[in-house]
Amino acid sequence: MKKLLATRKSAYSLVFAFVMMTGIMLVASSTIENTQEKVRFFQDLEANTQARLSAESAAETGILKLNTVGGIGYELSRNDIFCPEIDGAEGDECKTAGDYEIFSTAAKNDATMDSYYYTPMPGTGTAPPIEMCSILDEHLDPDHSCNWNKIIQGQGVRTPLFTTVNASNPDQLAADSNDDGILDPTELGLNNFKLLVRTPCENGSFGAVCEIDDVLAENDRYRLDAGGPILSDLYSVNTDDSVILWQIVGEDSSLEEPITLLPNTSIEDVGLDQYRPSDSNTEITESMINAAYDLENYVVFQAGGSGTPFDKIYNMAKNLFTYHSYEWESLYLEFTIGAPLIAGSGASIPYLEWQLITNSLDGPFADTKAVLVGEGTYATESGTTYYYPYVITRELTGELNSIYTLSN
Known about the structure:
Distance between the termini: 119 Å
Number of helices: 4
Structural class: alpha+beta
Helix content: 10-25%
Number of strands: 20
Strand content: 25-35%
Low-confidence stretches: 320-325, 401-408
Shape: flat
Radius of gyration: 31 Å
């Protein structure tokens, strides 16, 4: 009997030992699995960090390049890949690599079938919050707010009508017929350019159409409180307030001094009222913005050869016309909001949005800014490559300081 009890106790002990060992192995297996997941997590974190630091380093190298040899409209595509540090790689290969590109001219929009150049560069507009837009999203519809810049009351804009020659670009060097380092509208093969202005969405949305959660706004965009025009080609001074005034400024190539084609605020008496002639007056009025909105093209003025308004502007830009015997170069289109923005409902409109579209055969005008895209990669021993883009934006032309006095 005693021998039988001893045997049973031994069997119980053996079973207990098996149970304990199984429990220990399960705990160990779970611990090892969690540890492996944590190791993979920290490996991913390290790889992403290495790629991000490489991208930041590449972008900062691009800024140095821009500050050293760049100018307004200077671009550099796909610099030679470099290793930010010695990381034990053999030969020309490196686990951590960096590269950068510089963009600073108007660009075509991949979402359209046209050949026009858009300012701002697609995806770089300032109308929405900054975190909404990126040059990496350049496929966005041209009417999306990420393709429009913001301008508020009292602010001025200077957008170039030229670009700087990149000394490493043989096509630009060949096109620079004056050897002055500037490609003017003639050398860029300008056909026409047009300025688009519109109000923001009344519901605060920023898409190509004014919708939130796929629901279209009832009132769409704000409408400015305008009383004109009464005649087809004249805008009433008494009922139609000026909102924006624009002008062309540049330098004379021989005198090396600034010259300006002053804004035109001329008016004509018609009966008991006064009107602005639309083919010469450079004021952009409330009704002009409303009318462009109704036409769904937002064009408030354009210059483009014979038969269109502002022939003088176009001919001057093409050097077909010399203003006061000057020869123009480094042209800028300048415009500013000098009046309150009031909707027909009486509400205050926070800002306007603008876009410049250029049709030129041999290249675009410069943008108002440069965008540097740093690209970083990190290759792990397992063969996985991590990629990180880093974007920096630098304003090149600055804001216009002088505010014009509008006629009304």
